[in-house]
Design brief:
- The protein has 59 residues and is mostly helical.
- It has one domain.
- It is built from three helices and no strands.
- Helix 1 crosses helix 3.
- The protein is globular, with a radius of gyration of 11 Å.
- The relative contact order is 0.23.
- The protein binds iron/sulfur cluster (SF4).
- Iron/sulfur cluster binds next to helix 1 and helix 3.
Length: 59
């Protein structure tokens, strides 16, 4: 399981990050996979998490 810091860092860089409507974009102060529509509670449903995380390490 990824750390909270990783979930936030990945969500900030992920182009697939989705929330339900603009209202929620304003409601959530911090982007995190945990509040992304593609997160199922434990993992990324569309399997882009690892790719984004790997990309972060390369910067
Ligand atoms: S849950 Fe998946 S799609 Fe959503 S921000 Fe995280 S890695 Fe990206």
């Amino acid at each position: 399981m990824a750390s909270k810091e990783q979930l936030m860092a990945v969500a900030r860089s992920c182009s697939y990050y989705r929330v339900e409507g603009m209202h929620n974009l304003l409601t959530y102060p911090e982007r995190s996979c945990e509040n992304c529509l593609n997160w199922d509670g434990e993992r990324c449903k569309i399997n882009v998490f690892d790719n984004v995380l790997t990309g972060l390490d390369q910067t």
